[in-house]
Design brief:
single chain, mainly alpha, 17 helices, 81% helix, globular, disordered N terminus, disordered C terminus
Length: 497
């Protein structure tokens, strides 16, 4: 089968937009899978009979495999060609999802979730790399990254909505099996619309030592924060993993400086705008995943919403996020640049967190709505601008690994934020109960809301700090897609994409 060269601006735009649709399906599948299973966990636990202590591994298995293998997945897409990597990722993710949907034991579910994470680590950076190398016309690129950024920001909330619907109307297994249908549609579209370009120049090599150091370091990092969430920061396995992660990642950076074929070429990271973008995505991930968690608790436990009602409650935020994403990438980013836009989005998100702190046990949904709308607009301002800047002007040979850094930043940020906020909230809850004995139902309800409030204040601090960092690090130079790709075209020949 021949495919059109849709990376060329002379090719009909329809082909490029079909590519965007294909990439969007794959990205949504990967992002929502981090939260869609959360809603199904109680039903899965009752069906398969695993303990509360084991339950976390259904989530952790996915994040460990995903987070630790992202850099390898991004580099593989550069080496074997992005179309082949994309198709392999889709098939593998669908097979792993089907395995999970048919699981008859706890061990089978955990294995399936780990396999999902493995293939998501190949699929997510490849999808973004395909988008990066396909859309080079400035106006089209802005629109495409607006859509992609909206999916990256709203995927968690969409997962809650979809998970609630499938769990209530069908069965918990559909939260995994539904991916087979998404993957099948994306696979057919990818065969037709994702280009398979021929390789030019010598075949590159895979950095095996760098791969081992990076994967082990990222695994230890995600595992350490995940373990802190369940066993506390003073557990030997927690701090031991984090120390090991620091040693391994420092060794990785040193190795990247001296090796001939680095897994992550350092110029990809040390560019000031890209470095600022990666940090912004990580900080946003830390605040975003924590907020979804505690606002979900508030809706379900304090307001007694069903899983489906909880998902619907997030819809205004998603709508506002999509509107802001299109407005920021098409109108504001070309005029203002990321130095103004990203900090502004961070400040909006911080304001939203402060608004969430006003909620109490007697609040209604309308009291939470202003915070949801503000958060949606802030996220829609941050994510598309940061992601587009992070992949702008990257040598096409490194588009995959650069895209992997975006996903790695979000994943690591989510792990750090969830662990930190959970620990802080749990401590606040225990302190509140201890100070308000006896622990009646009313006291426990107030304690839960108090713990959420502490998490919101810390999230506000994350975003406020992110605003300062972004304002300081991003360059003042005017944002220009056209000039970036003009510069890129003079670099080394592109590899298969």
């Amino acid at each position: 089968m021949t495919t059109p060269d849709i990376s060329s601006p002379t090719t009909p735009a329809t082909c490029r937009w079909w590519t965007l649709g294909t990439v969007a399906i794959a990205q949504l599948m990967v992002v929502l899978d981090a939260t869609v299973v959360n809603i199904a966990l109680p039903a899965a636990q009752a069906d398969l009979g695993f303990s509360d202590g084991d339950r976390q591994w259904v989530v952790t298995a996915y994040s460990l495999a995903f987070g630790s293998l992202l850099l390898l997945g991004g580099r593989l897409s550069d080496l074997i060609g992005r179309k082949l990597a994309f198709l392999i990722g889709l098939v593998g993710f669908a097979a792993a999802s089907l395995l999970g949907g048919l699981a008859v034991s706890f061990e089978m579910v955990v294995a399936a979730r780990a396999l999902q994470g493995v293939f998501a680590a190949l699929l997510a950076p490849t999808a973004l790399a395909v988008l990066t190398t396909t859309f080079t016309i400035p106006r089209e690129r802005s629109r495409a990254f607006g859509v992609f950024g909206a999916i990256a920001g709203a995927g968690g909330a969409v997962g809650l909505l979809l998970g609630g619907f499938l769990t209530e109307q069908f069965d918990w297994r559909w939260n995994l099996t539904i991916n087979v249908f998404f993957a099948a549609i994306a696979f057919v579209l990818a065969l037709v619309f994702v280009p398979a370009a021929s390789r030019q120049g010598p075949r590159p090599h895979l950095d095996i030592p760098g791969t081992l150091l990076a994967s082990a370091g990222l695994f230890a990092l995600v595992f350490g924060f995940s373990h802190a969430e369940s066993d506390g920061w003073d557990a030997p396995l927690t701090w031991g993993s984090l120390v090991a992660s620091a040693v391994l990642l420092v060794a990785f950076v040193i190795w990247q400086r001296v090796t001939t074929h680095p897994l992550l070429p350092l110029p990809v990271v040390v560019d000031r705008n890209r470095g600022a973008s990666f940090l912004s995505v990580m900080i946003t991930g830390a605040g975003m995943f924590g907020v979804f968690l505690f606002v979900t608790y508030y809706f379900q436990l304090s307001l007694a919403y069903t899983p489906m009602q909880t998902g619907v409650a997030f819809l205004p935020m998603i709508v506002m996020l999509v509107i802001a994403a299109q407005l920021s990438t098409n109108l504001l980013l070309p005029r203002l640049g990321p130095k103004i836009l990203v900090p502004a989005g961070m400040l909006l998100a911080a304001i939203a967190m402060v608004l969430f702190t006003r909620l109490d046990v007697d609040s209604a949904y309308l009291d939470a709505l202003p915070a949801l709308l503000t958060l949606g607009f802030g996220m829609g301002t941050i994510m598309p601008a940061a992601i587009q800047t992070a992949t702008l002007g990257v040598d096409r040979r490194y588009a995959g690994v650069s895209s992997a850094m975006v996903n790695t930043s979000q994943q690591v940020g989510g792990s750090i934020g969830t662990a930190l906020l959970n620990t802080l909230a749990a401590t606040a809850l225990a302190d509140y109960v201890a100070a308000n004995q006896p622990a009646s139902d009313a006291v426990l309800a107030d304690a839960a809301v108090h713990s959420y409030t502490v998490a919101y204040w810390w999230s506000a601090a994350f975003f406020a700090g992110g605003a300062i960092i972004a304002a300081f690090l991003f360059r003042r130079k005017r944002f220009s897609v056209a000039s970036a790709f003009h510069t890129d075209s003079t670099e080394a020949p592109a590899l298969a994409h």
